[in-house]
């Protein structure tokens, strides 16, 4: 069972950029919903880490919204979120961050 969560600096920056975009171009309510969906995804991964699809380089991926994927790995009892990006982005541009 996963006991802690750690975000890579790059994944956290991308997450914050999405929240900022939503606040600026949509609404605070939409940004809040997005943050709730991300939190729900993290909590679900913590309980059931194997329920997501396999990613590259030993990672797994979960779809947070239809436009956002979160990439993670489990090391010991820690959930490491190593990527967060737009699904419309070309797959070769997706980089997996180290912690």
Describe this structure in words.
With 99 residues, this protein is of the alpha+beta class. The protein has one domain (4-93): YaeB-like fold (2-Layer Sandwich). Helices cover 37% and strands 29% of the residues. It has 2 helices and 5 strands, in the order βααββββ. The protein has a 5-stranded mixed beta sheet with strand order 1-5-4-3-2. The longest helix has 20 residues, at 28-47. It is globular, with a radius of gyration of 13 Å. It starts with a strand and ends in a 13-residue tail after the last strand. 21% of the residues are buried. The mean pLDDT is 88.
What's the arrangement of secondary structure elements?
Elements: E1 4-7, H1 9-25, H2 28-47, E2 53-54, E3 60-65, E4 68-75, E5 78-86
Parallel strand pairs: 1-5
Antiparallel strand pairs: 2-3, 3-4, 4-5
Helix pairs in contact: 1-2
């Amino acid at each position: 069972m996963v006991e802690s969560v750690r975000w890579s600096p790059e994944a956290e920056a991308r997450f914050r950029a999405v929240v900022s975009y939503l606040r600026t171009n949509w609404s605070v309510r939409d940004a809040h919903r997005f943050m709730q969906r991300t939190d729900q995804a993290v909590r679900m991964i913590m309980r059931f880490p194997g329920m997501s699809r396999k990613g590259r380089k030993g990672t797994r991926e979960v779809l947070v919204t239809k436009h956002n994927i979160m990439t993670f790995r489990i090391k010991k009892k820690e959930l490491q979120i190593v990527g967060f990006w737009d699904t419309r982005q070309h797959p070769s541009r997706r980089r997996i961050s180290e912690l």
